[in-house]
Amino acid sequence: MRPLARRAAELAADRSRADAPATAVELGCGIGIEARFLAASGFTVHTVDEDASIEQAMATLSTQLPIHHTRADLAQLPELPRTDLLLSCATLPFVPEPAFGALWARIREALRPRGILAVDLFGERDDWAGTDGTYLRRADVEALLDGLEILELTEEERDGRSFSGPKHWHTFRVIARAR
Questions:
Q1: Are the beta carbons of 171 and 122 closer than 8 angstroms?
Q2: At what angle are helices 55-64 and 33-40 packed, to 10 degrees?
Q3: For a disulfide at 90, which of 74, 103, 120, 121, Cβ 3.0-4.6 Å?
Q4: Predicted local distance difference test score (pLDDT) of residue 1
Q5: Predicted local distance difference test score (pLDDT) of residue 18
Q6: What is the model's pLDDT at position 103?
Q7: How far is CA 29 from CA 17, 149, 179, in A?
Q8: Name one GO molecular function term (predicted).
Q9: First-to-last C-alpha distance (Å) of the chain
């Protein structure tokens, strides 16, 4: 369980409405670890991931918990459901830059008033910068958050590992609230 998901769920926990449970959208859900946590925390969860290999795992989860999975490329996603919490752990940076702005607009539109946005973004000094994705300067991240209440904006640079070996990470961890 990623700390970003846990913190976002805590902040959005009071979002249940009289007419329905709180909703969460997870972009890039992988095998559903965070989705399972969010559903167990009382959210109705909508997941989006383009990886066909996880569909069976998500289908199994959907029979046990209020999780609704969509297989889709985030760069071509036409819309998102209205949500109290939008979570994306280390997925948005892989959206090609030409499609990122439109996706970000859909993310902002999906947030209900006082909804929580919790995302990881990659910075311009990340080792993968220059590859097909979106890598941002701090000023770019701050501009994306304009009009939101920033609860956390943590920039980190560190050397570590990735699935392909050693890597220099430049990341932004963002938690914000819609007004």
A1: yes
A2: 10
A3: 120
A4: 87
A5: 61
A6: 98
A7: 25, 25, 26
A8: methyltransferase activity
A9: 28
Q: Give the SS3 label for residue 116.
A: strand
CA distance linking residue 128 with residue 169, whole number of Å = 8
What would be the CATH architecture of the domain defined by 3-9+23-177?
A: 3-Layer(aba) Sandwich (3.40)
- pLDDT digits 0-9 by tens, 64-106: 999 999 999 999 999 999 999 999 999 999 999 999 999 999 9
Q: Which residues of the chain have pLDDT under 50?
A: none
The whole-number pLDDT of residue 13 equals 84
Q: Where are the domains of the chain?
A: 3-9+23-177
Q: C-alpha angle with apex 28: 26 to 34, nearest 5 degrees?
A: 55
Strands 83-88 and 23-27: what pairing? parallel
- What are 49's two structure tokens? 């991931």
What integer pLDDT is reported at residue 16 of this predicted model?
A: 62
CA–CA distance, 54 with 45 (Å, rounded to integer): 16
Q: What pLDDT, on a 0 to 100 scale, did the predictor assign at position 11?
A: 94
